[in-house]
Amino acid sequence: MQADLIGTWKLNPATDVSAVLGAGSTKLSYGALSATTTRNLCNYQLTFTGNDIFGTLAQPCTATGGVIQQFYDRSGDYGVDVANEIAWHGYFIQAGVNAAWRSGPWTLQAGYLFHKVRRTAVDDILAARGKPVYTQNNTILLQTDYRFGAHLSTFVRAQFNTNLFFNEIPVTYNSSTSDRFGGRYTLFTVGARFDF
Question: What is the pLDDT of residues 127-143, one digit of tens each?
């Protein structure tokens, strides 16, 4: 759920400025979670229920000695809390500003967005392990549009983010992937827009 307050002011016939202030919450959940692993040279299909792990032999195994057909384990015994590390709940705020200037067929735009999030459980788990915790992102957007006619325009856009996929794909943030969010993320886009 998210609520945004957006305002736009026309400074003159060619220039306008917009501002946004927003807040919301997000919740990640999962239905069935499964994985595969190798144990004693045999492949197993894993099924997770909360922090319980149930493993079943995935295919016949010809390893020497006894072959375990099924096993049960708890991820909590290894310091992993599956349910809280990948199915987290969070709250966020964001604030931004955008300016647009028009001259003939040209439109130039520049914008900035600040985004801050507080996630339950997973960030505390990461901090306790000494792993990086990323709670905010800064985005700068620059765009140039050129209108060819009433229904056709083209654009070139550059988007710069301080943290990789922070706003775009939050579902990928968990205790195994958080360190990857430290990288910068830049997206360049060229496209055509058809208005109907």
Answer: 888 888 888 999 999 99
Q: How many Cβ atoms are within 10 Å of 110's Cβ, its own excluded?
A: 13
CA proximity to 31, closest of 105, 107, 75, 83: 83
Residue 87 burial (CB count, 10 A)? 17
Q: Which CATH superfamily, name and number, covers 2-28+88-194?
A: monomeric porin ompg (2.40.160.40)
pTM of the full structure = 0.77
Element containing residue 138 per DSSP (H, E): strand 136-147
CA-CA-CA-CA dihedral for 32, 33, 35, 40, to nearest 10: -90
Task: Using CB atoms within 10 Å of the CB of residue 112, give its burial: 0 to 12 exposed, 13 to 18 middle, 19+ buried.
Answer: middle
- Model pLDDT for residues 142-160, shown as the tens digit of each residue: 999 999 998 999 999 999 9
Indicate the domain borders of the chain: 2-28+88-194, 33-80
